[in-house]
Protein: Ferric uptake regulation protein
Organism: Paracoccus cavernae
Amino acid sequence: MIIEDRAQSYEEALRRSGIRITRQRAALLRILADTDDHPDATALHARATAAGAGVSLATVYRTLAELEAQGLIHKVEFVGEPARYEPADQRHHDHMIDVETGQVVEFFNERIEKLQAEIAAEMGYEILRHRLELYVRKLP
Amino acid sequence: MIIEDRAQSYEEALRRSGIRITRQRAALLRILADTDDHPDATALHARATAAGAGVSLATVYRTLAELEAQGLIHKVEFVGEPARYEPADQRHHDHMIDVETGQVVEFFNERIEKLQAEIAAEMGYEILRHRLELYVRKLP
DNA sequence: TTGACTGCAAAGCGTTTGCAGAGAG
DNA sequence: CTCTCTGCAAACGCTTTGCAGTCAA
């Protein structure tokens, strides 16, 4: 995923929904497009500020909510910390969190996905979304 | 699990740790022992109040924190709602949440557990704890 | 031009905590 | 008798929101 493409596709999707691209939003979209970690709202605000964009934390939250509503980013909430955000245009994956370093590793396992769907189906349900997080520690 | 046994084992565990069994705590332990759903702090406070025990919400939180620290109950946090609590003396299980009714179904799948451990091990990690939640809807 | 946007500061929510008095052991 | 506990109310951290002014289209 090329960063400029991603930033551009964010803009287009927002414009398509009649949402205005303000200076503040453009800056945030650039930052989000350039993100390969899982920053929280405060981190994004700090990055925007560092980049010279005068953006308030309230606007960061409002923009994140908008992007999430449009399905462009995903909110992930790990135990005991503020919500983090990641671009939605990746293959679905789950998260492994190293509790000692805080490092987040993404992983995907087809069989786990299938098993979840089977379990739900057996009980007469379909899965709308799910959350799977492994809180781990490096083996010695 | 017989309720009185559970309430008693809570008391014993707390006493063993030098924690006093006050009137308020005794009432909460009884209520928690009698729980087969997943109440949050407010619900527990309401139940305690209904049972005639004068217990403040602060004490409910403090008691829950103590019980969790002792490993007697587990805190579970579903997306977008206050934390809920469940007795710890059950087989490990995960949760399926019917997003339409709010109903919580517990399930357990050995293969999913194994796969998680394998994935972690492959990447050089061991799992300390994990969280798996399926947000589902009844099939038509 | 005008309606959506912004920053600010205040409010919201669930949860935690400092304090002075109450009560378990 | 002591030391932990309780209730209260205030503070907490993260997030949302009302308002009056600002700016993209």
